[in-house]
Hints:
The chain is mainly α. It is about 60% helix and about 5% strand.
Amino acid sequence: MYTIKHAATQAGVSAATLRAWERRYALVTPHRTESGYRLYGDSDVQLIRSMKQLVDDGWSASLAATEAVRRAKSLASVTQTVSQLPQTAAPELSTDLVQKLISAAADLDTTELAVTLDQLFAISSFEAVMAHHVFPALTELGNAWADGRVSVAGEHLASHAVMRRLAVAYEAAAAFGHGPRVVLGMGPNSRHEIGLLAFAVAARRQGLNTDYLGADLPLDDWLN
């Protein structure tokens, strides 16, 4: 918990401004101690910081307060939805299939690669397969590339094969995405999309309305 002085400092505003926003817009409702001191939590500080950013960007204070609260509620809804994702027992990693994937990548064998991915994705639910089979397999593939057992071409072949599977799964899950909106993408110079796209698929499957923007987005696009 923060005093009003520390909360204002954390959010980048003056204590007087914070008091004014509380009074005029009911932006936050701090806890009051028995002696009357205001105490603020992390969520309060984040809300104040969000409003300040909007005001700095040219929003009027009243609209900034409304928008900051709306964003906070939307984030809370998304967080609750994600926290309710089903937890499944971790199935045992199929080392045979991992080795088949590595061998197919090393040999640039697209047919064997497709068959191996079919077998991997048939093991369990999408979420369990990605977490307990595909991601570990890709880690092993990266190790095989690092020690020279698989070429760059082979590693790219396998990675792009997984990306195509994820793209199909993402489109197939579109019918479920009617919940809170989530915008997903990667910052400048970030290009490894498999993890984010897998998360986008899982999010859609759980009802979130996702917009997937892909890799290497300029910072200005995020700010705007």
